[in-house]
Design goal:
The protein is α+β, with helices and mostly antiparallel strands. It is about 20% helix and about 30% strand. The chain contains nine helices and 35 strands. The strands form ten sheets. It has a seven-stranded mixed barrel. The chain has a five-stranded antiparallel β-sheet with strand order 10-11-9-12-13. Strands 15, 16, 22, 26 and 27 form a five-stranded antiparallel β-sheet that branches. Strand 10 and strand 11 form a beta hairpin. Helix 6 crosses helix 9. It is globular, with a radius of gyration of 27 Å.
Length: about 675
Amino acid sequence: MKIINYLGGALISASLILPSVVSAQNYPQKSNLPTIYIETENHQAINSKETYLRATLRYVDADGEKFYDALGIRGRGNSTWKLAKKPYRIKFDKKQEFLGSDHAKAKSWTLLANYADKSLMRNALAAHIGAFAGQPFTAAAQFVDLVLNGNYVGNYQVSDQVEVRAKRVDIVEQEDPMTDDSNITGGYLLEIDGFADSEPCKFTTSRGVKITVKSPDDEIIDSRQVNYIKNYIQSFENALFSTDFTNPETGYRQYVDENTLLSWFVVSEMTANPDAFWSTYIYKNQDDPKIYWGPLWDYDIAFNNCKRKGDMTRRMVLQDGFGEDLTGVWLRRMWEDPWFVNAVNEKWKSMVENGAEEHMLNFIDEKESELSVSQTLDGKLWPINKRVYDEYVVFSTYSATVDFLRKFIRERVAYLTEIFEKEAAGAVPTPPFEIEEDYYYRIHNTNTMKCADLTKDGKALCGNTYVTDTPSQQWNIKDLGNGFCMITNRATGQAITDNAPLVNGNYQRNEQLAVSEPDAGNLRQQWQIVPLPTGGSYTIANHATGLAWNNSGGSSNDGNPWISWDNDSNNPNKPNRHWRIIRDELKDNSGVGELNTYTTDYIVTYSPSESMIRFMSCADTLPEGTYSIIDINGTTVISGQITGQIDISALSKGMYVLMWETEGQYTSRKLVKP
């Protein structure tokens, strides 16, 4: 990592490194919150996540101004760095108790923009409920107004950097450099990481779980340390997938700290964080056999704020979150252990009895009041009613945004109470598969979590590691009636076909599943998705041959062929025949899927499969106004007053424009009638 004129030596004399408290006359608070003023050297723009720029910082609150002039600042984040409102990382030359003695004394701190979270408080709320659940460390959440090089840039959250340090991840920090006598049993800070391929120090388990090493730092870590922790995690995974994995002495429980595992899992489900299994921190201390779970991090798309996933209120992250091939590989196996299911239920009941719901709602009330002035200032720069990333629902007022969060909390608590109790009481039957044709799907083998993909020549079906935004791993499932469906590939449009040869009146198993031009009348392209008794998995059987999908030989290697095989009463006991079918991305031709960006609280959606446009109120009443649907020739084909829905089933296939007017504002969106 490059640092410009910064960490190579002290910027100024040691006597000036400590902050001084001075008059804040020239640097006023923007609101009731503290205001941070940062000025980079020569007012250079912050354009890099790698290079620190030399800077000064003023922290202004009711007690005055603290001045720091020995620090650097750079960008941070993955997806969030690409957004207009940027997140940052600051690094002091000397350790600072930047947020007071209750928090870490450290060099590195983060400035979270919370741009995709219109409430601004989801990360803070997750940390709050994490502490309530018993997580040993949760990140700080000090809201501030940020002024950068003289320009106000919005409301930000000062938070801890996730690192090994007292009052952060408080474990032993290994010797640097290590020697032949060094104790390399710990500590290690790891992340099960969907972005692992871009990280410098990483490894992959035998079941494809990608893990990055965060501490020791990649610049100092020794290969012996990497090998130690890689082998240790592999031993845990081997125990987890052993035949006696439920045995508390010889199974996986000998490796895990039960308290942090349960608190991390329950909070992940309470927050409905789709990224919980995509990015999971774990750590191991020195001379300690246990793997600890946490800290909690990155919750801006949690609490029902992910458009890609849709409404998560009554869906488990365990079943429908991202990271099925990451932390999901481990947690789904744990969910087969009655001890774990019962322990989760008992943990949750204890939290509810101790007032978890009231605890969260009170926190929301407190932060809504605290952020009142600052969020108004932030909203003038970053309008609250515009979707900027993946927000599930966007409102035109802050109060409506926060009310949506409150509503989710109440309904989520009720749902988890119901589902955890059912799971603990006995295995919950897998429901019939319901096709939502407005979405693409991913199909994973439950045993390996490899994703259905095309072979390199594009002619057949195989299993590959899941890669985000890969069209060849996205499938369109079309209902053909009579319990059968056609499954076509997004990238090629071709349909999965069973070409099993017919010999002496019997279809021969072991033929690799192929793809070919779609033909709804071809029985070899017709599939029945049959729920297994429990576990949320399905078998997929062919109409013509009667054979079922099978992961050949149970291999987890990329490119392993998927074949047609037996379809019989042994299905529940054959994990190579078990498939998880996961709703993925909303189809591109949905046309109208955005919120009105003006002054009224309503959503306009379009369902191609139903041929229905809907105006849905986020307030008490629908907006008053008119609409028109215009064809490609400019002719108005349907028009009228805005009501709850518009039926376009009578329209011919093709592209149209929906235009509507409310309060003198005109909005238009393209839509495709398939």
